[in-house]
Amino acid sequence: MVITMFGRLTFLAAVLTCFLSISALAQQDAPVVVQPGAPGQPTKVLPSSTRATLPLVSKKDVEFMQGMIMHHAQAVEMVALMDSRTQNKELRLLGARISHSQSEEIGLMERWLTARGQPTTMKMSGMDMSDMDMPGMDMSKPMLMPGMLTAKQMEALRNAKGAEFDRLFLTGMIQHHGGALTMVKDLYQSPGAGQDAELFSFTTDIDSGQRAEIRIMQNMLAKNH
Amino acid sequence: MNRVLIFRVLASTLFLCSCFVAGVTAQNNPFAPQPAPPLPAGMKGSDATDPRAKLKPGMFDAGEASMGLKLLTTVGKPNPFQISNDPSDPKVDKGASIIAGDTSKIPPAMKLVLAGLAFANSDLAFQGNRLFQGNFYGMSIYDISDPTKAYPLTTIVCPGGQGDVSVYKNLMFMSVEMPNGRVDCSAEGFPIQTAPGLPAASKDRFRGVRIFDISDIKNPKQVGAVQTCRGSHTHTLVLDPKDKNNVYIYVSGTSFVRQDEELAGCSGGTPDKNPNTALFRIDVIKVPVNAPQTAKIVSSPRIFMDSRTNEIAGLTNGGTHGALDKQTPTDQCHDITVYSAIGLAAGACEGNGILLDIKDPANPKRVDAVNDPNYSYWHSASFSNDGKKVVFTDEWGGGLGARCRENDPNVWGADSIFHIENNKLKFASYYKMPAAQGDTENCVAHNGSLIPVPGRDIEVQAWYQGGISVMDFTDPNHVYEIAYFDRGPIDPKMLVLGGSWSAYWYNGHVYSSEIARGLDILELTPTKFLTQNEINAAKSVKVAELNVQNQQKFVWPKNKAVGLAYIDQIERSGTLSADEITKLRNAIEVKNSDRKQVANLVSMLETKAAQARNSKDAAKFDAIAQIISEPVH
Questions:
Q1: Which candidate, B76, B73, B83, B141, places its Cα nearest to that of B117?
Q2: pTM
Q3: How confident is the model over B349-360, as a mean pLDDT?
Q4: Among B84, B116, B79, which Cα is nearest to B3's?
Q5: Nearest chain B residue to A93, by CA
Q6: Which of the 8 DSSP states describes residue B42?
């Protein structure tokens, strides 16, 4: 009797221990989820089932990405002209880096847009131009994003060789990069833009990376004079 | 249980994603990576024959390759940093519908990869048995008493990116930079406004440094929140050796300047037009340890100023090309590593690497600046323990791109090692993780820390999906890899952001913050490049707290492990005969060794020290002599 009783107790104890260790394990696996309040305010406990909410994306974000694809594509096109037109080693290396960077970034922007169900090219007809400051824009010609070289500038670059090509390339690319900085600046002047982490990080990187490249190009330009 | 479930759901999600991508491959698949342009003439790319070059892809079942590093465990991301498991969850649609209108256009599985960086894990900090892992959506705190059984304690929901973290006693600091950050940590962001014009200024927005009281680890409280004009991309904890009542935070902001209507006194532009511009400076926050709620900005040093001309935008790399020149001088730092023991800080500042004198912590002064034509973006820095070298990193492509491919040059997106001589930086060489990575692996130099192997300068470093690489930079002109760990790409067909954000050594283990997969915990294993004795010696250095950008000087105990590590290094260098090495080992191993024999060995070591090639070798002989004479076991 005593033994049976003891046996039962042991069994119960074992069950209890088992239960406790399972709940201890469960506790280990599931951290407490909290959301602090503003400074001085209490912290809320959230259910462990809490899931992240997707960031908001604005129309400006989408247009920025579409526009920047076009913008980057021209930089790649400019670098492609180097091959037969300049032997300047330093410049060719810089061009190669711009091309490596920007062609890869075009991929990033296309992925970003497609994952959000957006076309990778900008539709002129569907665009809201009301808040764009583009006086006298000729709608019959392909649209240029800020800083992009005009058809005439591209033609001059195509026809140049040697030192003249180097100069046109550098001044052109400085203008081109400057336009990217303008585009980033414009984006952050837009209500609600830039809340998406990937877009935010990408634009911040464009801003600092191209700023640094402009500085390198300015120095090259100064040296070659 | 939980983990298994999460794993299953994620695995099926990825399967669905892959199917979707496979489905669109036939058409013009925008996810298919473009091959890298050809390698520029005269440049060397990454090694495509390395075992890391072609590993099996997968989120949780990727192929692995390692040398000298062993993965002990991976702790998955906590639930709140995962998007809803159910693609048909209205929450998923809520985000997508803002832009797409008709969310049915987006394949359900694809909605889950929308997240990208939004819930990414970021930097790490440590205190006692606790690990703090930043996230773009908040923070995770883990118990690491037993690193092989690390488990999450607290998940803090508090979005705003990128969640750079530091800890000091009962205080935890967190960087916020994105426009969706809110003072009260809520997650809804700010409404998208369709009307043109400036964004509505909001007092609810938070961009700056949050301060939490973590006395109760399960109930952290926000006690302070210091707003800054550009937000805080990273921050650095700075301790004043002369003042125990206050700590300082250097704030590096890299993003846009917000409007005055939102935070009084904020304005941008170039200093010639606006001398009060919030660009061209860092912000210094002073935090009274006992009254963190009163923390505030006490100075905004113009560290880019030209000291001769007092021009605020003084860092133009010496270019003199008229007006153009003034267009883009360096106006920000990305990250600053302070080394109070030597009174210096190394700043990785956009187009420049700089050296700051920080003897007066609230008023850092630039003492040198360098640039490098191969550098795209100066990202972070770490000093050697003796403070005579510094390793800078170049985050070419911002970490979002594949930049370690066979055709990407090995001097782009690499580390650069500089000598520090009389407060001047002098370039020595580059180091880039040598293995070629795929087109779908974001990869570039990122955060690392020193491993305290006595007698050598060793750094463990994160390379995003390039994995973890441990390198020896004792000789800055001959930097080489001594250990690594890498996984295959998350996805073979499209670049899904992931990989190691930070890989740091803390009290005996390597902790790696995996952007997408969670937290990896690893240990060093002996190889021909690093012996067990050297690993043991590194493990004998213990710290109470680790904030990597607030670099602390390692001091090695004079113990057996350290002595054996030095003997191994001397053996490797071939300075002593095999017989002499054996005698030294015996003398260290045996507690009560013969006094006369010890005296002979000490005398031999003294002679060798006097003949040593350099002071570092001499110090090793001296240290062994000391350990043999007065063994501490």
A1: B83
A2: 0.88
A3: 93
A4: B79
A5: B40
A6: T
A23-45 tens-digit pLDDT: 444 445 678 999 999 999 999 99
* ipTM attached to this prediction: 0.87
Residue B376: which of A110, A191, A212 has the nearest Cβ? A212
Number of domains present in the structure of chain A? 1
Cβ separation of B190 and A40 shorter than 8 Å? no
**In chain B, what residues touch A221 (CB-CB under 8 Å)?**
321, 324
> In 3D, which of B327, B336, B385, B375 has the Cα closest to residue B352?
B375
**d(CA B169, nearest CA chain A) in Å:** 19
In a domain, A38, yes or no: no
Edge-to-edge strands, sheet with B243-252: B234-240, B243-252, B283-288, B296-299
Radius of gyration, alpha carbons of chain A? 29
- Tally Cβ neighbours within 10 Å of residue B117: 23
Residue B97: per-residue pLDDT: 46
Distance between CA atoms of B483 and B534, rounded to whole angstroms? 13
- Residue A192's domain comprises 59-119+148-223
| Residues of A in Cβ contact (< 8 Å) with B220 | 34, 36, 43
Say yes or no: A47 contacts chain B, CB-CB below 8 A: no
Whichever domain contains A156, its CATH number is: 1.20.1260.10
> B312: how many CB neighbours lie within 10 A of its CB?
22
Is A27 inside any structural domain?
A: no
Judge contact between B205 and B262, C-beta under 8 A: yes
Cα of A54 to nearest chain B Cα, Å: 5
Classify residue A199: in a domain, yes or no: yes
List, in order, residues 6 or more apart from B551 with CB less than 8 Å away: B337, B338, B339, B341, B382, B383, B450
